[in-house]
Fold DUF4935 domain-containing protein.
Amino acid sequence: MNLFIDANIFLDFYHLSGGDIEELKKLVALVENGDIVLFSSPQLREEVKRNRDAKISDAMRDFRKTSFKLSFPAFCKHYDEYEELRAHINDANKKHAELVQKAMDDVKGRCLAADLLIDNLLGKSQEIEPAKELYDAAIKRFRLGNPPGKKKVTLGDEINWESLLAGVPDNQDLMFISGDGDFCSPIDGDALNAFLLDEWEEKKESDIHFYKSLSDFLKDKFPHIHLASDVKTATLVEQLAQSGSFATTHAVIASLSKVTDFPVHQIEELVSIAELNNQVGWIIDDDDVMEFYKGILGKYGDAMNTASKEKLEEILTLVEASPDPIPDEIPF
């Protein structure tokens, strides 16, 4: 799956009411897992870098102003709780000051969680190399008045768009995330500009899917991924489903046994795998596989649908009821 994320989406993670860092963690996991090919450009990197401090400054300005205060009626001041509450308020203000200082140290060191995750993501992206042809095409787009871009002085949006037209393989769809109104339809703010949509379909012979936020994209394309760790778990379940050998089954079961929580849909899938993949079902009486599936039944039995629960109980019961193999030596 091909993906481009506009700079404003990355910068939102530095804003006071910005995105959830967990969304970036999920995206990193999906890119590392090969589920997503992230495209970037030097223009995108530079835009994030030059606007980072301004976004942080706006957020910290409001955060610094925060002060914990409380007015007390005079007749309350003789109560023990008055002094206790004042002490808590003073402690809160002290902790606030410490947090501001700690955050600013990380800001200056460029080691905020957002810094590390964004750098990691862009480092794993497929960067579209700049070329004079791209710059010339961006200038032409600007002078013709074609979207995207604000049509003032800078060419950032135009360069990014031309980079995608040149760098994303033909006949491959692109997921495009931007909160920038310059990419939106004047008629429907949640849709891509019709000119850009038609241009992409004509030149790339593929579809482009537009999202206004990273969370919207993740909910649509990866609805079962709630945490970054879910990406790895989903991959392991898929590997078990595709297991073509007993050795692979044992290796995957060892990894799955370390997972502390499974969503219901994965529980159903694990039961189906035990039933349908003989590289799992034929060795379900092996200690590790048996222990794993018994644990699934014991922990999630009440959450499973009736058919899946009965199927897993049947599988495990049949195994436990099967006769012992013929011993090597038969006593007389």
User: Anything to note?
Assistant: The CA atoms of residues 177 and 216 lie 9 Å apart. The chain is about 60% helix and 5% strand. The first helix runs from residue 7 to 11. Strands lie at 2-5, 37-40, 126-127, 174-177, 208-211.
